[in-house]
Write a structure and sequence with these properties.
It is a single chain. By secondary structure, this protein is of the alpha/beta class. It has a seven-stranded parallel beta sheet. α7 packs across α9. The longest helix is centred in the first third of the chain and has 15 residues. The protein binds cytidine-5'-diphosphate. The site of cytidine-5'-diphosphate has 17 residues, from α11.
Amino acid sequence: LLAEMLVVVATTQQPTTAPVDVGTLGQELLLPWQQNRTASQHLMDELNNCTSTQAEAILTRANTRNGQNIRYYIQHEKTYQANRMFYNTLPRTSPLPQTPYRRCSVVGNGAVLLGRRCGAEIDKADFVFRSNLPPLTGNFTRDTGRKANWTTANPISQLNWRFNLLSNKPAQKEKFVRHVRQYSGLLWVSAFGVKAATTVAIRAQRVLREKKLSSLAVVYGNPRHFAAVRDFWAYNGLSMRLSTGIYLTTIAMTICDEVHLFGFWPFDVSHTGEKLLYHYYDKPDTKMNPNLDPAFLHNLPKEFLKLVELHRRGVLKIHLETCQ
Ligand code: CDP
């Protein structure tokens, strides 16, 4: 059976990546785990030195100047001028706390979440990170939980294509607001990766203000912080375009004492050999947009093995178990 579960994880970027035996890997992740507080603290200090997450992760009036040219991190030949109107929409200071949260959950969107009934375990955290406006209601709640304190929204695939916010149509705005009511706290948008992201990110912020959804605030990712995180991982053996999941995990390791990952499993079979869809909310006929295909954009298996190293060192816990 284990031999059948051998998945070759080669991607377009890393054609020679070694195969991963997902059966053995899964068994290992199910063994009892204990946090190594010294190792967690050590990495937290190192990340703080390299990335200054608390002050830098989100664009604020404290880390951006009125009139500053903000440089895009993917299209780095381009800049955006933070004029007064834009500047005034930034939070005055960082919304992240000076003292770390005790426990955080970072929830990936892998279909491995389904049927494991970990919703309550996820929501037990003081702070929950989620990616890409995932559904948390109805039948999903038992497996996903409901709490969402920092949710990311991809400006192109979500804000632009899915919710068509650039159209400025009342029905589209209404649909967007109805959907995002399930989250609270921060709606984090990577507004300064590529030029096309900025207008729609600003539009999302306006829509929430216009609809007076005060429980959720659109904040913009700071491209300098993203670059610092990218450099940290490049130095530590991951020279690639980082996924949202590893970016959020890095932030969590910097601002949380204990980090718990759920829904991270970038393989198409589970450790027990069941076939898996890519996202927990995908339908069997869901087609991946080729421009957003993770195998093309990222190397998730390689990232995942890095996270497994941190699990082994007791820095964070990858959850794969059935919870109740
Ligand atoms: O923004 P991105 O396309 O990277 O992410 P997503 O597909 O919305 O999923 C959020 C994160 O969950 C990813 O960035 C991965 O880190 C993680 N994930 C995973 O580990 N295994 C999967 N099968 C799907 C997602």
